[in-house]
Every structure is written in C-alpha cells, then in structure tokens.
Amino acid sequence: MALKIVLSDYGYHISKKGGLLVIAKADGSKKEVSIGNISMILANLKGLSISGEALKLMLIHGVPLILLSRDKPVGKIQPMMLKSHVRLRKEQVKAQEDARGSKIAQTIILNKIFNQIKVLKRLSRGSPISVQENIEEKIQQVYSIYKDISESGIDARSWLISKEAEASRHYWEAVAGIIPKEIGFTGRKKKYENPEDPLNLSLNYLYTLLMYQVWYATELSGLDPFIGYLHEDSNRRPSLVMDIMEEFRQPVVDYPLIKHLLKHKEGKALDEEKKLIDSFRKELLQIFFETLEKNVSFMNRTAPIKAHIRLQPIRLAKYLLGYTDKYVCFDIVM
What we know:
Blueprint: E1 3-7, E2 13-17, E3 20-24, E4 30-34, E5 38-44, E6 49-50, H1 52-60, E7 65-69, E8 72-77, H2 86-94, H3 99-124, H4 129-152, H5 157-178, H6 198-221, H7 239-245, H8 249-263, H9 278-292, E9 295-298, E10 301-304, H10 305-320
Parallel strand pairs: 1-5, 2-6, 5-7
Antiparallel strand pairs: 2-3, 3-4, 7-8, 9-10
C-alpha cells in the first residue's frame, strides 16, 4: 500500500539516496522510504528544506508535494506533463451550454442531498428517542427538497444552489442536535466566518485536504479543473474540483469526523487561541487517510475510496465524450 507521508512538525529536510527519499527531522532522526512506496507528501513549510535531487526523484515518479502553512495547504509541486485531451477540453466547455451541464449540476446536488440523508440516518441509530425524532423531522425536510428538485424540471444553477443551501441548513441543524453541547457547534461556519468550535474548524481543515485530493485526480483525467457545471467559473477557485468534491464531503469527511467527535467528546482539540492543536490535527489526518483507504464497491468496482476519487473525473470525462449515457455520483457512506 502506497504511503501518504505527513510532515506536520517544524524543520524537516528531504534528500535523495539512490531510489530512496531520506527524511530527516530537526532532532537528527532519519527515515528512508522507497520512492515507489510513496503516493503523496504533505509538509509544513516552516523550516522545510528539500534537495533538488530529491525533488527531481519525486517528479519523475509522480509523487506530488503539498505544502502547508498553519494547517492550510497553500500550494503543490507536481509533474508538468499531465495527460491532456483536446477533444475532451472542447466537450467540457460545450457541455456548459447544453443539456449535459445542467444535468451534471442537478445530479451532483441530488447526490449530495441523498448522502446527507444517509449520514443523518446512520447518526440516528442508537440516539435517544427525542434526538431520533428531531433527526427524522430534519430528514423529511431534506427529502422534501430532494423531491422538489427531482420533480420540478428546473435546472437553473442559481436555483439548484439555493435548494442545496436550504437542504444543508436542515442537515447541519440536525447535526447540531446530535453533537454534545460542550463542543459548541451551533451551525455550519466556513473559514471566512472565523469559527471557534472543533467541528467547524475540523471540517474546514479536512475539506481543504479533500479538495487537493480531488484536484489532483481531476488534472490526471485531462479535465480542466476550472471549468465546472454547478459552481461558477472563477480564476480563484477550481469550479470543477468543487463540483466533484461535493460527492465526497459526507463519505470522506462529515460522517467519519462526526463519529469521532461523538466517541471522543472529552478530548482536547483547541488551544487558547481557538486553533486546532497539533495532536488533534494528527488525529484528523489519521481519520482522513484511513477513510481514503477503505474498500468500497461502487460502479461494479471494489477499490479504496481514494481510487474512486481518482476514477470519478475519468467517469465524468467518459460521459462528456459520449462513451456513457450518464454520470453517476459517488454515494457510498460507510
């Protein structure tokens, strides 16, 4: 099994020794890893150094280096010669103007809402009766929105996004009713809203890691990460990456994270400045990458979730090129 190496501490140095990467810590300890056994390296920029030969070895073997600053990925280094397909790019743009684009957007929204319902049903199991009743009420509200989208025939992107926001509000209200009060989660808050509770901070951190997983897979497929169908095109945000990422939010981040917080609610997660502490951040990384390694059966193929993340952009490309008659979103919540 290929390793994802996470260098979250200060002062790492990466060098090359034959076909090995030598990873040395500031305290003088070292570890040698064969380049063929590495799938990705995430490294804290603070105090990081890497030799040119080590970087060349990584690029030759297609091992991306994701750089983090204060828990946030800020960049990546990867090979330039990623697969590109001229006809695919043309079809990707054309689909924004024909029925394929609106169909993809609707499929993504319906799948996300369906995954949210799955998460709520799983979280309801074993909960007190009063909590179960609240969750069931929220599930019905979310399902009503699902039916509205399915039956309305409306496929305007702005309308779909508004309905998704409405469903997500009910979803997170249900989660707030499950999460212990001491965690301090009252609703979903994104980074720019400066959340101060462990759940929101963890969600924002893990969603960013998920985005980079999907981004890399999208580039490998030959699709343009910035030409999407649900999220608006922007030079600052890869809209297609954000589209495909919607399929994996609940299976890869929401459900595993919420389960962990329910089980370990007594653990310390934040420092005095309301930031994730190092030990808890390492727990999050472990949860995230262990989830990616789980084998699931989807589209008649049993493989780790990380493999399905790689396959989904390829499946979308096949739909855009007319090799399949529909695009099916990932809908496995374990």
